[in-house]
Amino acid sequence: MQFSLWLALAGAGALISFTPGAGAINTMSNSLNAGFRRSIWGILGQQAALIVHVLIVALGVGVLVASSPLAFNVIRYAGAAYLVYLGIRQFLSKPSAAQEQAAALSNEPAWSIFRRGFWVNLLNPKAIVFFLAFTPQFIRPDQPLVTQYAVLTATIVAIDILVMWFFFAAAAKSFQRFTTTDQGQMVLSRVFGVLFVAVGILLALIH
């Protein structure tokens, strides 16, 4: 990949990562509940899903999903339902158990955090459609495809990790003081719960 083309890819990748979405909300939620350092597991889970999306597009399966209303809608509604489920669960969490909940979540297994991040990103078929439109801009058919897809994926993943961890997860640290009181915990649970539900509804409604 030419350096000028890679720079364009890096710029586009940064713009995509800074756009708030389910991944950003999940990252901030993990940072608040499990801590800044442990939020990296959720971010890595999201990147694993991103790699799956790129592989789907690279293998041509994305064309099938994008052209099949049934397949697209099944995945879209499954993703929306999962986000709404996460939002309702967080919204209904009991503020009276703020300290206990914080302690439990701070000890949540890394695999659990990773798995949640993976499903949040994977169950978003719009990402497949997006990559179908995005990747051709940076892929040259006359050059080795495997190498180009490897560079594209590595660049997007690296940028997204940096943005998610050092921007969204770090920004959540400023709200950490709210988790020390029942009232603060309730406010944060309501806010992030509503955000998760809103993103889920948007995912289901926007075509």
TrEMBL record:
InterPro entries: LeuE-type (IPR001123). Signal peptide: none annotated. It is a multi-pass membrane protein. Pfam families: LysE. The chain crosses the membrane at residues 48-66, 118-139, 151-175, 187-206. It is found in: Cell membrane. Keywords: Cell membrane, Membrane, Transmembrane, Transmembrane helix. This is Homoserine/homoserine lactone efflux protein. It comes from Pseudarthrobacter enclensis.
